[in-house]
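Mods, move this if it's the wrong board.
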Amino acid sequence: MPEADPFDCERIQRETFVARVHYQPQMSSTSDVALELVAEGFDESSLLVLAGQQSAGRGRGANRWWSAGGGLTFTLVLSGSQSGLPQECWPRFSLHVALAAGETLSAYAPGTPVGLKWPNDVFLGRRKACGILLEVPPAQPDCLVIGIGLNVNNSLEGGPTEIRQTATSLVDETGLEHDRTDVLIRLLQELEREVNRVVAGEAALADRWRPLCLVRGRTITHRAATREVTGRCLGVAEDGSLLLETPAGVSPLYGGTLAAVEGLTLAR
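Not the wrong board. C-alpha cells:
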C-alpha cells in the first residue's frame, strides 16, 4: 500500500531555505516537472519539486533512476542571482551536493562507510545510494536545477537483478525505516550549508572530498563522447576536475563519465 501523505510540506518550508514546495504523490520525473515550472516563469529564490514516488527518473546521459515506493526523489531549483551562487561555480556544484548527501547518509547510517564517486554518485558501503543530476534550462540560464534520488525506505531486494548488485538503501543498510520528511530536511539543511560555503568563497573542496573519494588511487577509464582514456586517479582538484595520471602526464578531466573503476562495480 502506498504511504498516505508521506511528506510534511509545511514543515519542510518552515525548517529549510526552500521558498516553495510543489508536491505530487506520483510523478514521472521531478526534473522534467521542475523544468516545465521554470519555463512557465520562475522569480523565486528556490523551488522544491517533490514526488511521493517517481516512475521515470533521469540520470546522466541515457541513464534512468530506478525508484520504488519509499525512496526520496526531488529536484531543487535555485536562482543564481537570488541565492548568490556564482555561475562560475555551477560546473563543480554537483560535488558539493554529493558532500551534502554524504553527510546526510552518515547521520542515518553511522556504522556504514560513505564514499563519493566523481562526479555525482554517493555510496553506502560498496553500493550506490544516491544519484545527482545538474541542469541549466536554456530558456532560464540563471536557474540551476538539481535532481536528487536518494534510496531511503525503498529496499533494493525487490529491484532488478543488476540494480540489486550495484545499489543499496538506508533501510537495507540499517534495517530501519526512516521518516522521509526528516531525511529530506536534513539533506536540504546540508545543501544550504554547501551553498553558503561557496558564496562565502570557502575553498578546501579537494580536502573535503579526499577522504571520501572512492576512485582516488585506482586505475580508471574515463569516457567523454567517443574518446576513452585510462590512467591512475590522483583525486579531485579544487576546481572540481578529476586528476588522471597517464604516461603522457597528469590531466584534469571535466565532464564525461567513469566507464570503469578498478575494484569497484559500477551501475549502468
